[in-house]
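**User:** My hope is that you can spare some time for a protein that puzzles me. I have put the entry right below:
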Amino acid sequence: MTYVVVESCIRCKLTDCVEVCPVDCFHEGPNFLVIDPEECIDCSLCEPECPVNAIYAEEDLPEDQNEFLALNAELSALWPVITEMKDPPPDSDQWREVTAKLQYLER
């Protein structure tokens, strides 16, 4: 099993979760983070750290977010690993409550 970053992370890209990951399974894109399912050890440390509730255990993934399981696997193979917390994007607060953000995902 793995943890999955879902839609609410898009354009927020808060990196609190990265700091607690013991295996460096997070990868960073232009405006989104993903978890490499091959590296994730299912430790659950990242889930409570996310300020926008964008991380779910695979078994708890909301039905409307199922496509993010494959998206995390796909993009983690392309994007670099992130291991340290960074400042959030300057407009991240404006995106916290926005839903249906997949159209804004930058690859």
